[in-house]
Amino acid sequence: MAKLWKRIPGSVYKRVFDNSKAYHGTFIVVFVSPALTHVVGFTASRKVGESVERNYARRLMKEAFRSVSPSLMPDFAYVLVARKPIVASSVEDVRHELARLTAQYRQQ
To answer: Regarding predicted confidence, which is higher, 40 or 37?
Structure first.
């Protein structure tokens, strides 16, 4: 089965941040920008915690994105940024919040 979503190259992050709309939640911030292909990026800064916690946060976001991705609009770039409370959350919490945030931009 072919991958539907590709990882955003490092050089594209700034363009997505500059030309996107941000949706803020308790655990994550989702940046959505028009793009030519389906691309996604996950980031967790050092404010989230040590490397183990940042990697855990990225894994949570990736798993939540996998379950929500079939309902996402095509031809958009998504960047998910972890916030500090994500470390104490479960994948269900992150999945629920991601679904809520993506529903916000679909309504607009």
So the answer is: 40
- pTM score, whole prediction: 0.88
Residue 1 forms part of a structural domain: no
Residue 27 has pLDDT above 90, yes or no: yes
Q: Range of 66's domain? A: 6-107
The amino acid sitting at 13 is Y
In the chain, % helix, strand, coil (3-state, to 5) comes to 50, 25, 30
Domain assignment present for 19: yes
Residue type, 16: V
- Please classify residue 70 by burial: count the beta carbons closer than 10 Å to its beta carbon, then call 0-12 exposed, 13-18 middle and 19+ buried: exposed
Strands (E), 3-107: 6-7, 21-24, 28-34, 39-43, 76-82
- Domains contained in the chain, number: 1
Q: State the pLDDT at residue 55.
A: 96
